[in-house]
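User: I'm new to structure prediction. If I give you an amino acid sequence, what do you actually give back? Let's try with this one:
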Amino acid sequence: METSQEIRVLGAALAEPGIWLSQAQRIKLDLFNRHHALAEQILTMRAEGKETDPQSVSAWLTGCNIKSYPLSELLQIADQSPLSLQAMAQAVDALHEISKRNAITRMATQLIQNVKRPHAKADHLITAAISELSQIAAQSTIGPISFNRILHEVMGGLGRPVQTSVKTGIRTIDAITGGFRPGQLIVVGARPSMGKTALATNFIRQAANVGKSVALFSLEMTAEQIVHRLLADLSRVNLARISTHQLSSAEITALTNAANTAHRYRIWIGEGADNLEPICRQIKDQSGLDMVVIDYLQLMDCRAETREQQIATLSRQIKRLARVVEVPVIVLAQLNRQVESRPNKRPQLSDLRESGAIEQDADMVLLLWRPGYYDREADQTTAELIVAKHRDGPTGLVELKWQAHCARFVDANGK
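Assistant: Good question. You get back a string of structure tokens that encode the predicted 3D arrangement of the chain. For your 415 residues, that looks like this:
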């Protein structure tokens, strides 16, 4: 089957250039095995803008001293060309399927060899296998889509409800943002100790309350500390008293009730941020996944020459994660120290550290500010969430109330 599909695809290049062009961006050299040499020359000719009819290819092969494909054989291959766009797409689909199966076979063979090594760690082998399978799965089998097809789908969907979003549970935030939608990258920026982790915890608790599945990757807190925060959020018990186990009987009762509520939550906690895409794919495949939270961006690491390049790379990777896994991804980010030197310390987009790439990639940027952090005479419960960027909707300012004892934000009216 593999050879016949290769001949059909190459036949299109020889006999039906229009049909070939409909799938050209999906046709890669590594899809061909039996006819790899011919495919390489045809792809080279197409890249150089040359005609690829049988006579032209025959002359090219002669000039390259390739004698394995005489003109008579090229004419036979041309006769096998698909006669429709649909048939061509099916032939290329088949090559991609074969390529993926071959890649899985090679990976499995290598995995078996690695397992036999005496010092191999099972967790490392699993992580590497998940990562490689994710890369195989990500191989595109979808070419460019025509505008008319997208237009038809958009118009046909206008009468249906918008794709389900994850609500924050804070009415005034949801009124502006409409909630967080699949594929969106949402950046929550703030100075240290402003409450960005607490706000993210609020988002997680609300999503879990309505049955959503959430993955949280924290580089700053342990899983136990995260559970402490969620329990404080749910029970309204003082977070410091939970952390130190200095609890009254009434507080223990409140925490027990909160734990009974949280027991049904589908929350996954990772103390790190390596291999996010394969891990999230696995969670989604096995248990479903509706939202991802990363705490926080500047603690993540990747190879790059400068910090700006590093942040740019991480930003692109997180944006890709949102689109590939098809969930909203909330990433917390620390604001620049320059905030402290201004008379007006209300944050703005440019305060994001190494902000260029983050600002560009984000679908939404939320900046958190508590005036009381800088002015001890001010109301310590007042907080603002500035919707500084919103690709699909309005920007604006949301007034919140900060309940410091249990690390919780609520609407300004206290609800």
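You can read the tokens as a compact description of the fold. Here is one thing that stands out. The mean pLDDT is 84.
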